[in-house]
Amino acid sequence: MCSQKKRKDMEAACTWSLLSEKKSASSSLASCSMKDPTDYREMYRRHLREKYLKTGPDKCLPHCKHIDTRLLLVKEYGISEKTSCGVPQQDCFLEMEHMFDPDEPGCNSSKTVVLQGCPGSGKTAMVHKFMFDWAAGMVTPGRFDYLIYVNCREISHTAPISAIDLITNTFQDIKEPILDIIIEYPEKLLFILDGFPELPYIFCEHEDDLSDNPQEKKPVESLLCSLVKKTLFPESSLLITARLTAMKKLHSLLKQPIEAEILWFRDAEKRAYFLSQISGANRAMSVFYDLRDNEHLDIISSLPIVSWMLCRVLQSQDDEDKHLMRSLHTMTGVYLFYFFKCLRNLRGIPMWMGQSCLQGLCSLAAEGLQNRQVLFTVSDLQRHGIGINDASCDFLNHFLKKVEGDVNIYTFLHFSFQEFLTAVYYVLKNDDCWVAFNQVGKTWQEIFQQVGKGFSSPTIQFLFGLIHKGKEMVVKNVFGRQICQELEEELLKWTETEMKDKTARLQIEPVDLFHCLYEMQNTEYAGKIVDHLESLVLLQATYTKMDTLAMSFCVKNSHSDLSMSLKCQHLLGFEEEIHTSLFMPPSMPTASNVSFNHSFLLHNQYSSQLHFLCQALRDPACKIKDLKLIFCHLTASCGRDLSSVFETNQCLTELEFVKNTLEDSGMKHFCHGLKHPHCMLQTLRLYRCLISSDSCGALAAVLTTNQCLTELEFNETKLEASALKLLCDGLKHPNCKVQKLKLCGSLLPESSEIVCQYLASVFIYNQYITELDLSENPLGDKGVKYLCAGLRNYNCKVEKLDLSKCCLTDASCVDLSSFLRRSLTLKELFVFANVLGDTGVQHLCEGVLHTNSIIENLVLSECSLSAACCETLAQVLCFNKSLTKLLLINNKIGDLGLKLLCEGLKRPDCQLKDLALWTCHLTASCCQDLCNALYTNEHLTDLDLSDNALGDEGIKVLCEGLEHPSCKLQTLWIAECHLTDECSGALASVLNRNATLLLLDLSGNNFTDFGIQMMCDSLIHSRSNLKTFYIDTDYLCEETMRRMELLKISNPGITW
Length: 1056
Known about the structure:
The protein is an alpha/beta fold. The strands form four sheets. The protein has a 17-stranded parallel beta sheet, with no helix packed on it. Strands 2-1-7-3-6-5-4 form a seven-stranded mixed beta sheet, sandwiched between helices. The protein has a three-stranded antiparallel beta sheet with strand order 8-10-9. α36 (810-822) packs parallel to α37 (837-848) and α39 (894-905) packs parallel to α40 (927-936). One of its GO terms (molecular function) is ATP binding.
């Protein structure tokens, strides 16, 4: 809701010209003694402008000033149903300056914006730039009076504080009593919580933990939760930065947040960054193009923190640097390279002293991570053997910086440095001679359990990278110590234990594990670990280029067959179009110009979102057999990459696209691959995709040559009549071997009849199609008439026909009956959810009763049936010896109808095994007829009576039949049948005596602890083979749960 408070606009927007005056922030604020609120706002803005204008060497990522805009991806977790076939038409990208724009003109309601990104993506830098731009009047003019910036890591160690304390700390340099002025208009406040989700204790389970009083002192975590849950300053807006791995924890606290992911550098941004940070355009572009010679490093350097590190240590580059850069494939390698270069460029102190400083930084980092501490005093540094003097200070400036406003407090330049050095500490912790050995008491496992991040922790990812065999010498040269040999075995053993534990494995996000294995670069071990996953389900809103690189490394090394599902809305970092003018290197010396241009052209080929995944699939060792690509925003170039897979891959047999479109050019490339002689694809599914007539024509051409494709499915993929005509032409070709054709919900209403004629013509020529699914299409009676004309052809070999939800009436049953009398192959017929009525089923049964009929499965659920058709159905049960499954769900057949069916069930020739009578308006009166049928029928194994008012008396009667020796029932579904404890004795008796029953569903009834205990006791002391026991367990007492556990001990295989 828009804020109702109104006041005069205080000032005009500031401009960049105001930045020419550079004064000390502290002195300018301290010298003012004005009382006008406008003056305080201007003082604060001037303070921010001067603070964030600084871009000295101690600033990590100098606030992205060299980049005009950094795009954010605003996440939507649902796919719009308004777009064609539900396929997302465009990404929602937004610039940071517009995140707090009003939803409606003049409406400034509070917003919560969560800025997400992986470590080093520039979240804090973007926040600082936003604050600078706000202070300069360039963003959200008039929207906020004050920005309250809180570094959550830095305050996590403090004593209980109040919201007022947070505010006054922000304005500590202002000497006047302005607190009342600041909080007078809370809707004009923006609280910025930087790094909030990374606090280890962000859950406030009880409302008492929260505060609504700005002056109440609370533990830091409770205070921050109060701000996020809007119990404090509910009218104010929030800007929160978070790592992607922390979002699951944060979601429980937020109400309708706007979630935006900060994107990695695009090529143009990275190029601009290198030009701004490395002196000399030629030198900058030389480094930039050296990166592009190493595809892996090129991807990693798109992360802003990596670009910053490389620019900082490559101001001067030699041949050794170029050689080393070609070997950098992992994040761990880049960090080691940074520390190696800093040590090699050491001036003023001997090498051993520099290594000693680095060892001290390792133990300092580990102790800080153990204690959740990011701020360190001089005494902390000295305790870890780090001396602060003029000679060592320049060296330490590569890793530490002084906290602004306090010359004696230090923090790491970037939190990832602390995480990396913690990992180094543990790989070097191998003897007692290290002076800082005892400073950190916890093992690496204990710290990770404490942090609770598992494989998503950057520290454990660095650990995997550091135990790589090729890193041993580098680590020794940089840190002066040997890697602990036992750590590799310890870490790998721990990983295998996590993977073998099913509960732990379910909590692992596969891509986090992939990053760890990628850092290690051990192909054999990666394959061994991935084999534990059996199937890969990757479900995130976004994946980066680095994610897909790590993913491809792991899946191509798997030793066993894998099923893989990739579901995301965005695969980020793949640029479809290359604007040459932006990327061509500037003029360089003649000798090198050719090689640079060649490198440019080589690496600027279009790279599709599936580039790395397809690289893995092309590897002969890759064992992925089933691949699902869900959403993913695939483009035309993906078709080219997928096409190349089929030239070499011998394992991929199933491929499914969900809500994707490759466009016509992409589909043309894709189909070219399907026609390759080495293509082994057997199943192709397209669910809610956009497929044109031209694309269908390309698929039809595949059918004329591909001898392996046996299943083709279009599900809710709307196809024009012209497209289906081309497809049918391909299906009629003698070389077509498609056996299963599914067009569920894919026909347009206006063309259904003509399409049925096209399909009918297929069966004149095609003898391979055994399964035809046309469900959820408006075929109508006329369409079915055309279709049956083709189905009756002697060449037709259809065994399964699904016409569910096809707008059929009793008229269609006449044609279907005619088809049944002629068909020698049809075994399954689905006509679910059509208004056939009793007359229609009677016509249908005439065909089922024909001597040619070999029908086994007949689905007549929701067909508007009554008892009137049950006599005919009973005759089918009596005389048709092939029918084994009959589904009559949600028909009003009633007790009379069931009585008639039971007459058929009692006949010795009845072969029915599965009878579904769910929601058929049955009462206790029918149970005696069922009981009598069970006395004689030895074939019925599955009976579903759920959602019928059988009651206790009816079940008691039914139990008599269940105890009879002739009863061979294996599954009994009596959920929601109005049962109570009164019938539990009869059920307990059945469970004690019946040895064939494997599943019993009693859910949705009114049993109490007494009834459940009686049945459990019976099962414990019986020889029952029951494997599945469905009951409601939500409100059972401890004693009942104890007996259920005893049952689990006596029958380990049972589930409920």
